[in-house]
Write a structure and sequence with these properties.
Elements: H1 8-13, H2 18-32, H3 40-54, H4 59-70, H5 75-89, H6 91-105
């Protein structure tokens, strides 16, 4: 597995919030995403459904759906996951997530 390296925290918040940038880039993505207990495809799918369940439909959800696609999550898998989670997290959240997923998978 190729090591995941993230610099968004430092790029966007490095001077304003250096501690947060460190936790984002080095801990969340550097350690957590590189832990071998789960493969990146599974981590990507889990991240998308957790963001959906929380109703977070901003650019972070878009980024993580794009990431899921890059990490091998198929259109059928993302649609199946969103549909399944809709019954537990809420129908409007599923609609919002589907709108973003359709854009990503129709690219």
């Amino acid at each position: 597995m190729a090591k995941i390296v993230q610099t968004a925290g430092r790029d966007r918040l490095g001077e304003f919030a250096p501690a947060f940038a460190h936790y984002n880039d080095d801990i969340l993505f550097g350690e957590n995403w590189n832990d071998e207990a789960l493969d990146v495809k599974t981590r990507s799918l889990l991240t998308v459904v957790v963001l959906m369940a929380q109703g977070i439909t901003d650019s972070s959800l878009l980024h993580h759906i794009q990431n899921a696609k890059r990490n091998g999550v198929t259109k059928e898998e993302i649609a199946g996951a969103i549909t399944h989670v809709a019954f537990y997290a809420g129908w409007p959240k599923a609609w919002a997530t589907f709108n973003i997923a359709k854009e990503v998978y129709n690219e």
